[in-house]
Amino acid sequence: MNNEKHYCRISVLGLTLALGLFWGVYLFVLALLAGWGIRFMWISKELVQILNSVYPGYTVGLTGAFIGLVEGFICGGIGGAIIAWLHNKFCGLNK
Question: Is 40 exposed, middle or buried (0-12, 13-18, 19+ CB in 10 A)?
Fold first, then answer.
């Protein structure tokens, strides 16, 4: 049957939105918690400073958190789209 090859497919739009939302919210919360002085496992001002080299304008505080939300959504979305596209491209090769 031809329908069998569609069982392993991932929604490109779904994974794009999911990873974009996840990464954007993560960067948003990280900047806020680091701004409030919370230091716990992965939460620190140093991590925000390191991520600033990848995401220009991303800093500790509310303004930087919103910049991280937007940039993280875009970056995570692109990554999710690439992962879903590659998965869909290779999912039928083992048959």
Answer: exposed
| Tokens describing residue 15 | 């994974």
CB 37 within 8 A of CB 91: no
> Hey, where are the domains in the chain?
31-89
What is the pTM (predicted TM-score) of this model? Answer: 0.84
Q: Could you give the CA distance from residue 27 to residue 65 in angstroms, rounded to a whole number?
A: 7
pLDDT digits (tens, 9 = 90+) for 33-78: 998 877 777 788 889 999 999 999 999 999 999 999 999 999 999 9
Query: From CA 27, how far away is CA 66, in angstroms rounded?
Result: 9
